[in-house]
Amino acid sequence: MTTDTARRPLSPPRTPGGEGRPRPRFSTGTATGLGVAVLYLSLIVLIPLAVVVWRSLDQGPGFFWRAVTTPDAWAALTLTVVASAIVALINLVMGTIIAWVLVRDRFPGKAVVDTIIDLPFALPTIVAGLVLLALYGPESPLGVNLAYTRAGVVLALLFVTLPFVIRTVQPVLLELDADVEQAAASLGASPFQIFRRIILPNLVPAMLSGTALAFTRAIAEFGSTVLISGNLPFKTQVAAVNLFSQIESDNTTGAAAISTVLLAVALAALLLLDLLQRWGNRRG
Amino acid sequence: MAIEVRDVTKSFGTTPVLRDVSVDVESGSLTALLGPSGGGKSTLLRVIAGLERPDIGTVHISGVDATRLSPQRRDVGFVFQHYAAFKHLTVFRNVAFGLEIRKRPKDEIRERVMELLELVHLEKLADRYPSQLSGGQRQRMALARALAVEPKVLLLDEPFGALDAQVRKELRTWLRRLHDEVHVTTVFVTHDQEEAIEVADTIVVLADGEVKQVGSPAEVYDHPVDPFVMRFLGPVTEIGGDLVRPHDIEISASPLDGGTPATIARVVRLGFEVRVEVEVDGQDGREAWVQVTRELADRLGLAPGDTVTLRPTPGARRLALSAV
Amino acid sequence: MARYGLRTLAVVYLLFLLVLPVILIIWRTFAGGLAPFAEALTSPSALHAFQVTVVVAGWAVVANTVFGIGVSLLLTRHSFPGKRLLNAFIDLPMAVSPVVVGLALILVYGRFAPVGGLLESWGFQVIFSTPGMVIATVFVSMPLVVRALVPVLEELGDEQEQAAHTLGASRLQSFLRITLPGIRWALGYGVVLCLARSLGEYGAVAVVSGRLVDQTQTLTLFVEERFQNFDQPAAFAAATALALVAVLTLLLTKLLRPKD
After folding, report:
1. Per-domain residue ranges for chain C?
2. H/E element holding B18?
3. Do the interacting molecules here have an ipTM over 0.95?
């Protein structure tokens, strides 16, 4: 509130390149609003998350390490990271192909396809798991039973992360200038060469952003894997499910340690995402 | 005085935009703030309206110190360059907005709004939405909206800046006539010297955040205080180290007392006006030009290669370039 | 040829991952006609779960709408130090696993935590009760309204608001008469997304609710509990109901989404 330089009657006129800093419009109203927002955010998000991290470390790094490396927790964490990486890669390829088809192809029913892409965002995760179990469970009409298998976990993660790559690549593809491709064609480039040398370089930042988002989501996923994984430690139990059972058995310090690992992985992925976006902006 | 601006200084971050600016605006006048873009004229207008706060200095409106008043209490009408039309309200509701805020009775609002819409020739479009209007119509709606609350002063920021040339010219004449009818003290910002000269009765020339000159259109055109103002307000050319208006130069085939010899390079006929481009002796190849009537050019038989003598007319305003 | 290949690949992938599973569960739910569906959804437990869901999602949406409008105005109409940080914090909940959210809230607001213990001594129970479920739901759906509003507020600019001020409108008047009508579609879009997320939240609510049947059980918890107890018809009926809400949400957002 005291940064309002208008209240300093004798502040000298500043010259360009001088040491003066931008004068923010920082009124009482701004301060009140900011205070309330920060309080709300702190009470609901920041303080609880900080307590989780603090709780995981307050008995020393040795305890943290032991909690994370108990056989079942370690198995769950590695399964989560590996499954998420596989899911991210499949999304990278399939998401880009679907985005391509939605932008460049024309066929009846395309608008419907475009709309249902967002269904995994709208559908409750527990319902997603149940729905997959109906088609790929013990009573599968296709005769494919993925229940209680790692493939089932991957399938559930693929379902909930479907929209990310598609929805980040689609707008970039829409804005690509057809002129550039025509210019490349007029210079003798084949369709494959045009894709490889002209289109792909423009899409890469968006493709990687979407993949990072999908990875982050997969790491954190809980609801959709509960039913289809059958919660088998060492086999199909993902980190969030393992974490859930630790909370249920009141092992809060161990749970806090796993949570901290999940938070760290998510933050690292988001940081990477931010870098990717800056890189994309610089090139765009 | 309707508006008194005293010693106003304003910076955005480290960039000074207004430096120690003082301006008086007489009641009932139509004043133009004229200057190149980035010269601080829009900021000055926004300071008067209360949309920006000066770092130093005061603003009085109708004798009341308004420096610390919020825009809503200043009783000013402000017309934005891009109209700031309320997109979700009809033309009628746009104009009625200020009156509704002031909780005037419905009948009074209706009457006043229709009166204003007639004044700006939009009475038939009262139920349209801004998106259904042309640029000029939106601008007139914005003007009616600002006038509806009977402001003490009317402030217009580049009012015709976003319009095409033809509509611009029409609205200029119309604004002048409107002001003669309504008589509200009006200040408008423009970077177009022709617009300022045609419409305003007082011109304030602002550049680099400073007031360069204040005066009637004739004063600032004919008696500019410095080469900058002279250049900004109209065409100039250079002869014998002086800055002169090209229509204030005598041209003769025979030598003149105190004249400067020159050679005609080109004769460009622009209808009634003829532009004679000359190479002046001793001016290192810097060309000058003289504006003459077609009749004079024909009578003197001016043609490229001719040698002529140039001399500023007795009443011409001359500014020595070397002095700057 | 390549074109048809890609098209087929995309359509088949979506068909088997997305469309067939959803259709199958709807088909199974209604295989015996509407009556079993209605019966499964009108059992006392189902009705109670429905009621809990509406209460929790309702409060969460109200809280996040008010917060969302306030924060987006802060981010677009004010400048202050730490703006980028605030902006980043708003997105944080998207990256946090729902189970971690639940644990975090238990560690602060649980009976044996300092804050939770204090509140409990005043007779205010947060965890295993509605307030905790509301806070958990608010946490996971926090960014949705803000992210829907910020681009529209930026696009709208503040000139109309300034014009309203010069015409004598107070801050509140200019917000109610100018800003709010300008952002109403985006606000609707954000609120629908927030509502869908709130109705469907499972993990965080599963942790903080204690999953007490007929007390803190929401519809999503009901689905899971019924399925684990081999009551497939009830689980499928509730899942189908939630899926239909999701489809409705999808159509609504399609309608409200700002066209570019």
Report:
1. 45-256
2. strand B15-25
3. no
Question: B248, B316 in Cβ contact below 8 A?
Answer: yes
Q: What are the residue ranges of helices labelled H in C42-176?
A: 44-77, 83-95, 98-109, 114-121, 130-156, 159-166, 171-174
Domains annotated on chain A, with CATH: 40-282 (1.10.3720.10)
B162, B79 in Cβ contact below 8 A? no
Q: Does A5 touch chain B (CB under 8 A)?
A: yes
pLDDT for B322 equals 63
- Is residue B318 pLDDT above 80, yes or no? yes
Q: How, if at all, do strands B76-79 and B153-157 pair?
A: parallel
Judge whether A217 and A233 are in contact, CB under 8 Å.
no
Q: C104 and A158: CB-CB below 8 Å? A: no
Whether the CB-CB separation of B39 and B208 falls below 8 Å is answered with yes
- Digit-coded pLDDT (tens) for C7-42: 999 999 999 999 999 999 999 999 888 998 999 999
Q: What is the DSSP string of A241-261?
A: HHHHHHHHTT-HHHHHHHHHH
3-state secondary structure of A118: coil
DSSP-based three-state secondary structure for B260:
strand
Residues in chain A closer than 8 A to B15 (CB atoms): 14, 16
Confirm or reject contact between C66 and chain A (CB < 8 A): no
- Closest-CA distance, C204 to chain A, in angstroms, reads 9
C-alpha to C-alpha distance for C108 and A236, rounded to whole angstroms: 31
Rounded (10°) angle between helices C98-109 and A239-248: 30
The residue to which tokens 């109705």 are assigned: C199
Beta-carbon separation of B11 and A16 below 8 A: no
Q: Given CB atoms, is A11 within the 8 Å cutoff of chain B? A: yes
Instruction: Tell me the CATH number for domain C45-256.
Output: 1.10.3720.10
CB contact under 8 A, A13 and B9: yes
Chain A closest CA to C35's CA: distance in Å? 21
- Three-state secondary structure call for residue B321: coil
Whole-angstrom distance, CA of residue A256 vs CA of residue C254 = 39
Query: Are A237 and A140 a contacting pair, CB within 8 Å?
Result: no
What are C185's two structure tokens? 């579609």
Q: Looking at the complex, does the CB of residue B68 fall below 8 Å from at least one CB of chain A? A: no
**Chain C contacts of A118, Cβ < 8 Å?**
250, 253
Confirm whether pTM is higher than 0.95: no
Is pLDDT larger for residue B324 or for residue B137? Answer: B137
- Give the residue from chain B lying closest to A4, CA to CA: B55
